[in-house]
Design brief:
Strand content: under 5%
CATH class of the largest domain: Mainly Alpha
Largest sheet: none
Distance between the termini: 36 Å
Radius of gyration: 14 Å
Structural class: mainly alpha
Number of domains: 2
Number of strands: 0
Number of helices: 8
CATH topology of the largest domain: Serine Threonine Protein Phosphatase 5, Tetratricopeptide repeat
Order of helices and strands: HHHHHHHH
Length: 130
């Protein structure tokens, strides 16, 4: 595994701030950050990266990480996790709305209808309809 600052810079340049932060936290051993990165990679059809992050999440003690890796409908299950992450962030307040929107959007792009609805609600509240 690359040093944390190298991994963070890579993610910042290729995927944006949200994933760069998650990569930094994951590099420090945060099991939930590893799991969230895995979900993102699954939803982007990047199974190799997803598998690596799921392995790391499992090693760091995240329940369900290895089960998701071996799930028959891993992408569908990942969309449900992304929706749930979005809900968690959404209900932590206005400051977490961008994170909520991020996770709802990637789940919605994979056909998760509840995530699409929550994304619309967030955008309506914040006045952004992009």
């Amino acid at each position: 595994m690359a040093p944390a600052h190298v991994l963070e810079r890579f993610y910042l340049n290729t995927h944006g701030r949200t994933e760069a932060r998650l990569a930094r936290w994951a590099s420090d051993g945060d099991a939930e950050a590893c799991f969230q990165l895995a979900v993102i990679h699954l939803l982007r059809d990047e199974p190799f990266d997803a598998s690596n992050w799921l392995r790391r999440a499992g090693e760091a003690g995240r329940p369900g990480a290895l089960r998701l890796r071996d799930h028959l409908n891993a992408k569908e299950e990942a969309a449900e996790f992304a929706y749930l992450f979005g809900c968690q962030y959404e209900f932590q307040g206005r400051a977490k709305r961008p994170l909520a929107a991020f996770f709802h959007e990637i789940a919605a792009r994979c056909g998760h209808q509840d995530a699409a609805f929550r994304l619309a609600v967030i955008r309506r509240k914040s006045g952004t309809w992009s």
